Amino acid sequence: MRPIWSGAISFGLVTIPIKVFPATESHSISLHQFHTADGGRIRYRKVCEADGKELTQEEITRGYETAVGTIPVTDEDLDALPLPTAKAIEIVAFVPTESIDPIRIGASYYLAAEGVAAKPYELLRQALERSSKVAVAKFAMRDRERLGLLRVLDDVIVLHGMRWPNEIRDASQVDIPDVEVSDEEIDAAIALADTLSGRDLGQMHDEYREALEKLIEAKTAGTRPEPVEAPQPASAEVVDLMAMLEKSVTEAKATRTGADATVHDLPAAKKTTKKTAPAKKTAV
Asked: What is the pTM of this model?
């Protein structure tokens, strides 16, 4: 595994030289575009709008478009920016893990100690473990400053990219359902959740990718796999919600290997007082 970035963790007056490695990898199958008539590959080329010339990467620079023209921004300009985070992951706070909303979490990276950093790296790792907290940090990568989160996973410090607060859209823009739900229906939903609890997430796999691989293998061999009827989405008009929940609990129980959960008879739904949805805030 090759590092994609190197720098240091800045922890107060302690500096920890590190290398950054991607913590995840994609196993998606890439499908290309082809011309239907002759099978020719469709490619995207970088063409200058001014003279129509196709350009190489060496001929392309970056810039910011303004009303008076384009302002070029070179790699040298970016490297010279007066940012303390240009080559450092600067820890700015330690917070409880539960205080971080998952909606803010982005890409993940492994951090490895470099050179003489073994002891301060271990110091930070154990401090994170014993405090049961995560560290919030700022760092610059790929032409912009980012917010990050440091935590420990299997004795390795992991850096998660985080979205800035102003990158999260206001949830009040989403319509809130205004419907009646009985206590019995809620209890039934919780019973279903209990039945689905305790599953090993490590055993989950990408079924779409596997099916696509089989399709490609079959077509390569000049055959085609037997079509499988895809499950149809449930109708938006649910006639008997309690019956559907009870059936879901039964089916979930049946699919659990060695599960010790039991299926209970669910009470019939009873009507409850209609709740009025809270007033929506006006989006700023």
From this structure: 0.68
